[in-house]
Amino acid sequence: MAEDRIEIKDLLLRGIVGINDWEREKPQDILVNITLFADLSPAGRSDDIADTVNYRTLTKQIITHVESAGRFTVEALAADVARLCLETPGVQRARVRVEKPGALRFARSVGVEIERTAADLA
Questions:
Q1: Domain covering 5-121, topology
Q2: What is the pTM of this model?
Q3: Residue 84: which of 99, 103, 100, 98 has the closest Cα?
């Protein structure tokens, strides 16, 4: 069976993430990229939104979480986003990349990328 994917690219949000006092004073840019692995063939046959992953609803949940979580590490924030993805019906695996643009001098961005399955939630 082919591995079907839904890509959510360059979701630019603002939230608190970091360990330094100055990083916790005001929201900063956080860039999120997500790949959802799911069987999309039922929706391909039926053309019915009920047969696929509702990525709009998921994206709203992710936005709300990132903007309010106040995590110390991008690793923890990425794990949170992966958990939200895997709690979404139909998602079998999720790849999540969370970046802090401008966090390092001379670097456009710094971030982490993780991949999780439902078994990793247990």
A1: GTP Cyclohydrolase I, domain 2 (3.30.1130)
A2: 0.93
A3: 98
